[in-house]
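Meet today's protein:

…
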Amino acid sequence: MSAARPLTTLRTLAVVATLPLLLTACGYGSEAKSDDTAKVAAGAKKIDGLDSVRIGYFGNLTHATALVGREQGLFQKELGATKAEYATFNAGPSEIEALNSGSIDIGWIGPSPAINGYTKSNGKSLRIIGGSASGGVKLVVNPKKITSLKDVKGKKIATPQLGNTQDVAFLNWAAEQGYKVDPQSGKGDVTVVRTDNKITPDAYKSGSIDGAWVPEPTASKLVAEGGKVLLDESTLWPDKKFVITNIIVSQKFLDAHPKAVEAVLKASVASNKWINANPDAAKTAANKQLAADSGKALPANVLDPAWSSISFTDDPLASTLNTEAAHAVKAGLLTKPDLKGIYDLTLLNKVLKAEGESTVDDAGLGVG
């Protein structure tokens, strides 16, 4: 792999094949950009001779580890004279495509796209190398139309996209209520309307949907529009913990540049440590980066409740990823996958040990 690499415009992904079906993506990746505001320490050297490391993430608060790490200059600090470059995404499949094409090297992403990317490539495209966040997903409804969980039957509920993490979670929940829903069309006892998070609040205001199973800050945006939280997904999980954001890396990049990967993980661990020690300052930093990425900061009535519902952790909560895969199989969105080898937590545990922190477990899904 060449150390000097040109910036690449990330391609739009319309359809991504998974096993056993096609999942459509409605998100786009931005052009990769370097962070010229982060200062490189005098005398710093390039890691592995690399000119840059390209990092992808979503403009969601559930990706605040990346948002804060970028805003605080933590990635650039650990990468030395190797430039940290960034690309933002709206949907997991487009980020997986960017990883596969070499447009990014490392990314923050939800569990379902990671599972789909891994299984589609027969276990050759990516590894999950760390955790980032838990929680931050809610079912928000129009209280004039839905006053209890049983009222969801017969209504129109939005999820971000077919087969994404929240779509799988809602389909699984609906099945547990005894509702029959065709996973492809979304039609059945409940109508699932796949809607980009950016336009879900407008769809809610127009009345074209009755509620949505969505991540933060979209959930709190709906509440600000008069919606009511009917269910917090964390209540459905043991200890109220489930993976919502992982860190993935291209296997090729991991094999060729482990020192660069370790540097990014050091920054991620430092970011989570700072977030948990300074929640108010971290919330402000995440919002500042969201504003820089999107041109608009979140108002306090959205930011505050959204932030309080997310927990940030280096633990990938591997056992819950296995459960989420089982949910996708149960919903008819995935053939039972072999996830052995999807995790490589070697470098993360090395970083955690050096920081005097407890190591994390891969639930038997690690390499080797």
